[in-house]
Amino acid sequence: MVKLEKVLPKYARKAFSLNPVIADKMGLSARNLGRTADHFLNTWMGKVGIIILAFFLLVIIYSQLFMPYDNNESALPTYAPMSWEHPFGTDARGRDVLTRTAHGTLASLTVGLMAMAISMGMGTLVGLASGYWGGWRDNVIMRINDVFLSIPWLVLMIVISAILGNPSLFTVILVIGVTGWSTTARIIRSQVLSLKERQFVERAKALGAGEWHIMKKHIFPNVVPLVFANAILTIAIAILSESTLSFIGLGPQDVETWGKVLENAYSTGAVTAGQWPFIVMPGLCIVFVVLAFTFIGYAMDEVLNPKLRKR
Amino acid sequence: MASFRRVMTQRLFNAFLTIVMIMILNFFLFRIMPVDPALLMIPRDPDLDTMRIYEDNLVKFGLDKELHEQFIIYMKMTFTGDWGTSYIYKTPVLEALAGPLAWTALLLGISSLLTFVIGMYLGKVAARRRGKNADLAITGFGLFFYGMPIFWFAIILMLIFAVEIPIFPTGGYVTSGIHPFPLTIDKIFDILMHLVLPVATLVVGAIAGIILIMRNSLVDVLTEDYVTTAYAKGLTEKQVMKSHASPNARLPIVTTIAMDTAFILGGAFQVEWVFGYRGIGWTTIDAIDRSDYPLLQFIFLIGGTAVVAANLFADLALVKLDPRVSIV
Hints:
The complex is a heterodimer. By secondary structure, chain A is mainly α. Chain A has helices spanning 4-15, 20-42, 44-65, 97-133, 135-150, 153-164, 169-179, 181-195, 199-206, 211-247, 258-267, 276-304, 306-309. Chain A is built from 13 helices and no strands. Chain A starts with a helix and ends with a helix. Chain B is globular. Chain B starts with a helix and ends with a helix. The mean pLDDT of chain B is 81.
């Protein structure tokens, strides 16, 4: 395998060859990035995770560009068994199940990524503020956080989606994102609590650095690895949450995710019709994508957390 | 011990505060629901004077009052145990939910017990054979089922063991037409048969977390100096495990149980829905479909309170189990 560590700095230097200082700096950070990436790919979890994700990226490209059937075309025979033309059979309206499953990939991953962005953004912001301020403000924020941690997530999501009514892709993302920030906030906060007592923060304060500067330049960069590893795991949870919401009929009405395909399979009686692939395949897709993100998250944790490496 | 009492008072106060905030959230969330309950409760009959019934309903539900007045009444009613009347069942919500609550308790009781016993055992085996095949197999199994939608696994189990090979019933908590009470041996057997698939789903869905935590915390403990000392004293592996490693490794599990309460409830919702097991989860999803807000509001409240109580209980249990905690 080509060592990324060696290749990356060379390109970085070339790209910025006009300005030697920037080029050197870019080279250095590229080398660090390369080393991290190498280490990451050396763990079996990282490798497997990346392979699975790469497969699903190919599926997205294929489904958007080359799919032989239209997603809504229903002229085909209904509940056709598995065959070469329809590897997963067809559904109650005669649509090709493989096509539907493949199309679900993009929607499901979109929900996962966007919901992650929302809950990580909120969680990081709240955790940083709460941990850094301390005192009564911390207390107030943490009590609100307690409420969000205490309400069973499914019930909260159900209630919010019922309020928003007729959920679209965007509202589903919003619901999952907004209900998912509390754990992140708590993890970030405890890290900040320990960081702000360190000497480098004290030193910065002694030099007259403002609150905002310390947060931005000293605290935030140190929680980034934690945010990163946590973000990957959050994607997995968001995809699972979406499928559950869809299954009980509160999924997005405007796009078809894997959860919606499953719900459709279940409610049109694919179980009793013996349409195995219709039930099994979308579910397996969810399992593997979630598995991929979990693996990558764990591998990332191992890379960014040298203490774990010894084991 | 004085400091211990202070910490506990603080925790209790926080728990109380959380519950009050859940109540407040509960009030406002259901006030901004798009459906007007007074409108919803008008019977579909063209002969009736709908406008008058609507106004009567407004008065009956107290919706004619100002928002702050409604809020005070709501808080008063919540604290005095008057939780409203279910639209679907036309009885007080507690009465409507007593049955489902009991069935869910049965389902969750059995499945949680199995999850913890089996999960802790497998975690222990994995930690002891760290890096060997048994460890890889168990952790791999755990991770695979960790990322599985619970409702999907429920459908798969139903497909295999109730449709293709009909050993177990497809749904419900008893065979339809049979009234579970008074209990007889036959009826107990029937109930147990109905429990097998839902319990299996819940155990497999939740066991991964327990296995992974037990394994990791045991691995942590096994690398501690005092474990090496114990081996150096000449104790056997069994003795070290039993009296040195396991008691310490079990501590994080206590916190996990509490943190998992919300997750376990979520799992129960899905399993009950798929198997048509008429517990609290099935009732909730049914209540959403039929806009039964008083019922939903009450479920929201007990769900949140249950989680708060579980966390408080875990704090207390941890103090009891780990003497180091009480010093803090």
